[in-house]
Amino acid sequence: MSSVTLPIVDNELKVKAVTYKSKYAPLLIKEISIPVTPGSIVKQNELLVQVKATSLNPLDCLMKNFNKGWLGDRVLGCDFAGVVIKAGSNTVFKEGEEIYGSFMEVFQRGTFSEYILFDPSTSLVCEKIPNGMSFEDASSMPMVSCTAYQCFQFYKGDLKDKKVLILGAGSSVGSYAVQIAKHYFNVGTVIGTCSPRSSDKVFKLGADGFVDYTKGVTSKINELLKFVKINGKFDIIIDVVRDEIVIDYFDSLLKTYKENGVFVTVNGPYTDDFKNIGLIDVLPSFRRIKQYTKYALGLSNYKAETEIVHSSDTYGEVIAKLYEERGLNFSINSVRDIYSDFQEGYDLIEGGKIGGKVVFKW
Ligand SMILES: NC(=O)c1ccc[n+]([C@@H]2O[C@H](COP(=O)([O-])OP(=O)(O)OC[C@H]3O[C@@H](n4cnc5c(N)ncnc54)[C@H](OP(=O)(O)O)[C@@H]3O)[C@@H](O)[C@H]2O)c1
């Protein structure tokens, strides 16, 4: 039993949270009420967690900036780390356990709140924090590392000694894709595209080479073609940043579906400017639709898949193994105080292209 005194009044937990009404309304820290179950506080399938750290994803800005205000006050955020204060009898967690996770704020209250009450079986991620990992590090990774891990699940076969191209290796998702490829799946060669500011980081994560995307499309494609000429085609290409020009070069860059080759797009907007995002920025491009259609009709030898993060039975073990055996690079841009710094931190993510997570301590 936890020694925390819960601020419950008339079966409602009164907590501070980062909230918003719509795209146009400011983010505000204010008190919200979370209805609890009389007596037990949680239902059998629920957890009550005291939040210790949260982090932001581009998705959180999308959720705010597509919100027209019809749903009333929303609580920001998907990712969190914290301590279980109450555990329902049907959950696998115990009171006092340190956990991290991610759930979609579109369906429920977000995670930027002193306490969160949720059903772990419906969350994207809900895992025990590996021994020695801080709340800040744990909160920085669930959405992006789970997305990165799931990209590899589209590959049918053993990835050992295979060749992987990660478009956007300097991004948060990309940085986990590099680590997971090299140190979990033991792939032979990882090449990443990134800008010079991220090249050291990408090498340290385990990449064998990088291509500077800031030199332009022609230079980038020529570099990749040069690599393939010497080393052979890629077994899997993971596109974190919608760099879909490579679709036009599948014949030269990617193995065919008969050789298990696969191209995986991490679904996301075609802009980094999340403040001014519109519907057109989130719809799949004509190039992508054409490729999917050609493959579905049997007119293309190249398989293209789309990753949308979902819950996974094996993700937690993969992260724990990597962390315990080798350590993980968490790719954190900055750690901030939630009460003094939430707006500045949010603005950084909304502006795009910072490369790395903004984490908040509660
Ligand atoms: N489908 C899903 O379930 C899911 C889940 C999570 C994220 N996402 C999406 O995945 C994308 C990445 O998210 P994130 O959190 O990893 O973003 P992030 O950390 O903010 O990544 C931004 C970085 O991407 C790199 N980049 C931008 N344009 C590039 C290009 N043309 N080529 C190569 N690198 C480029 C830049 O790094 P450098 O310039 O420093 O190299 C930039 O700093 C977002 O669109 C997000 O919405 C989707």
From TrEMBL:
GO terms for cellular component: lipid droplet; mitochondrion. Residues 27-360 form the Enoyl reductase (ER) domain. Keywords: Lipid droplet. GO terms for molecular function: oxidoreductase activity. Belongs to the YIM1 family. InterPro entries: ADH-like_C, ADH-like_N, ER, GroES-like_sf, NAD(P)-bd_dom_sf, YIM1/Zinc_Alcohol_DH_Fams. It is found in: Lipid droplet. Pfam families: ADH_N, ADH_zinc_N. It comes from the Eukaryota. The lineage of its organism: Eukaryota, Fungi, Dikarya, Ascomycota, Saccharomycotina. Its main location: other. Signal peptide: none annotated. This is Ast2 protein.
